[in-house]
Amino acid sequence: MNKKLDPSVTILDVAREAGVSYSTVSRVLSGYEFVKETTRQKVMEAVERLGYVANQQARSLAGGKSRVIGLLVPGLDNGYIGEIARGIDEELSRFEYDLLLYTTHRDKGKEASYSVRLAKGLADGLLLVVPFLTNTYTETLKAQNFPYVLIDQIDPAAQSSSVECTNWQGAYDLTRYLIELGHTRIGFITGLMGLRNAVDRLEGYRAALLDSGIPYIPELVQEGDYWKDGGYQAASKLLNLAKRPTAIFASNDLSAFGAMEAVRTHGLHIPNDISIVGFDDIPQASLVYPQLTTVRQPLDQMGRVGARLLIDQIEDPERPLRQVVLSTQLIVRDSCRSLK
Amino acid sequence: MNKKLDPSVTILDVAREAGVSYSTVSRVLSGYEFVKETTRQKVMEAVERLGYVANQQARSLAGGKSRVIGLLVPGLDNGYIGEIARGIDEELSRFEYDLLLYTTHRDKGKEASYSVRLAKGLADGLLLVVPFLTNTYTETLKAQNFPYVLIDQIDPAAQSSSVECTNWQGAYDLTRYLIELGHTRIGFITGLMGLRNAVDRLEGYRAALLDSGIPYIPELVQEGDYWKDGGYQAASKLLNLAKRPTAIFASNDLSAFGAMEAVRTHGLHIPNDISIVGFDDIPQASLVYPQLTTVRQPLDQMGRVGARLLIDQIEDPERPLRQVVLSTQLIVRDSCRSLK
DNA sequence: CCTGCTTTTGCAAACGCTTGCAAAATAGTT
DNA sequence: AACTATTTTGCAAGCGTTTGCAAAAGCAGG
User: Are residues A206 and A158 part of one domain?
Assistant: First the structure.
């Protein structure tokens, strides 16, 4: 870094330095086609010499594009969001977009106001990773025809672009895996049943049982909330059953961690006394002991694809909406034991 | 939500609706003092009725303030950053600032260009959580007199505001704790020794040994890198020592996790055969088994304080630089055993 | 060397807001 | 009621770009 990058250098200074008009500079900078090569050269040199950097605010005021996209998440406090955000971030930076981060965890009602703020020029598009999607929310966006993409969430009316993964299939595969190990009494800890993915996972579990001719026993299904504590509570109930399960399927890794703790509290050992599986494959899943067998949601990829969908939509507003479904993958680690 | 929040409503529309001039509207909106109460009322009603939301870009172009602050982090992929970011986010939203997130993990060299971009109006200030701080970086910022705060990182020349915590003291306390449990052969896995906090932690460890009359044995100190794998490697070396340590102090939780794995690989049991401690208290520390005894860095608070420092500086540029040091706290969990 | 194209460039008008300055309205004094 | 001081308001300029439109430059053909 030899030259000082003075923020007060404007396009006018560059124009003067290069001996052309400011609009020519603007055109060079925005990659306009009809500029003579020698002129372009001169301008670029002047830019270089002056250390000019465009003022993004002015650009977007005038041009209507901000090259910023907003990311709305409930919070940063679980590995799950972090992974998605990572994918988004990577893709965005490939396309030179900046990322404005909004968390909604404090003010539930803020979402609507956020969306408008963003739409008012702050961002060119919005990525939503909000489990509880209120309708008013997407409606506002839709009404304004503002580009947005839903991640790990779908619009029942299919009126939005979205990325999710095969929750049903993942749960099915995982249950089948347990069955193949010889388990037949498989406890299930649900997610927040208000969420579609929680329902899908439960359905996958039921389907797998059904296909294997194993009866579905309601008392083996306990409601959780996708958090560690909920998993602990639910697992405790399962463990206190007269005839306790030989395996527990927790609807996400976090509740699996809770279940693991409950198992230990009961003086039992994983996987010898009981097998535990989770769902998501957040980074912590391989950090716990024993390492958790789970279903990998390609979180970072979901982020990447979501970002990509959004960018496509921003750059070509005519592009039809798309719903992408990514596939999950069974990750076998050490938390299950074969009964055979 | 009953009224449609039309993004094309401008201040002019509000002015017309309220029957005042647009500058009055502007003043009302920016909380200017000398506006008659009844006028303010009228304006607010018009805003309400029209669902007006200010265009942030225009505001900052005209006013020079964007109410956005930039956050520069290496990446989102470790719990550590996430916690800090959470604190920052909370504080920022209290003061109604938005958060622009930049990660540097892909392009090492990008930092300098980011800083200028941000300084050019995109953000009002910058929060840096970058372990390896290059000078050219802060120098650019300083030269432009652009507000910024360093988090978990200091400027050796004390020419920057910063927030960090008592790394030395934390390591000292933790080592003393192990000594009190009866450990005298305490292995140490360093952090990235290029970082000051890594050096401080090592120093704290040495000082505690010294104060307790325990000899410092170089072979008990193995170099790590603050990542899980590095911890695994370093711990393996310690475990292969002719006379292996009875406790291992890993310089951060992530490397402690690696060490735990190494211990298991060696067929040993924690804490019966060997005690392990970490540093940071990232959320995962209480998720692993056995739960990790560690030193809590008040990460979210560091974020909050950093954000606050920055906001203060933005709102009053005359404010002198400040270096804040937060205290660490020993968190005793289950990964250590008393030898007495 | 002029004519009629086509390629390049420049001017001016936005974009939506803030803010200095001056005019208008109101309040306070005699 | 007239006059001054003070509080409120409005006008206009400007923030740094982009972009439509028109003028200038190049270029080829005659």
Answer: no
How far does the CA of A13 sit from the C1' of C6, in Å?
A: 30
Compute the half-sphere exposure of residue B209: CA atoms within 13 Å on the CB side of its CA. Answer: 20
Q: What is the pLDDT along chain B (340 residues), one digit of tens a residue?
A: 333 445 578 999 999 888 999 999 999 988 877 888 888 888 999 988 888 888 888 888 888 888 899 998 888 777 788 889 989 998 998 888 989 988 876 566 666 666 666 767 788 999 999 877 667 678 778 877 889 999 998 887 778 999 999 999 999 999 999 999 999 999 999 999 989 999 999 999 999 999 999 999 999 999 999 999 999 999 999 999 999 999 999 999 999 999 999 999 999 999 999 999 999 999 889 888 899 999 999 999 999 999 999 999 998 888 899 999 999 999 999 999 999 8
pTM > 0.70: yes or no: yes
B260 lies in some domain? yes
- Same structural domain for residues A219 and A291? yes
Tokens 């330095």 locate to A17
Looking only at the bridges linking them, the beta strands covering B329-331 and B294-296 are antiparallel
Are residues A135 and A189 located together in one domain of the fold? no
Q: Compute how many other C-beta atoms are within 10 angstroms of the C-beta atom of residue B147.
A: 24
Range of the domain at B86: 65-165+299-326
Return the closest-CA partner of residue B166 out of B337, B4, B327, B17. Answer: B327
Distance B26 CA to C24 C1' (A): 19
Q: Is residue B286 domain-shared with residue B194, that is, in the same domain?
A: yes
> Are residue B184 and residue B244 in the same domain, yes or no?
yes
* Count of domains observed in chain B: 3
Does A66 contact B57 at a Cβ distance shorter than 8 Å?
yes
Closest Cα in chain A, distance from residue B65 (Å):
10
Q: How many Å separate Cα A333 from the centre of its chain?
A: 24
Q: Is residue A27 included in any domain, yes or no?
A: yes
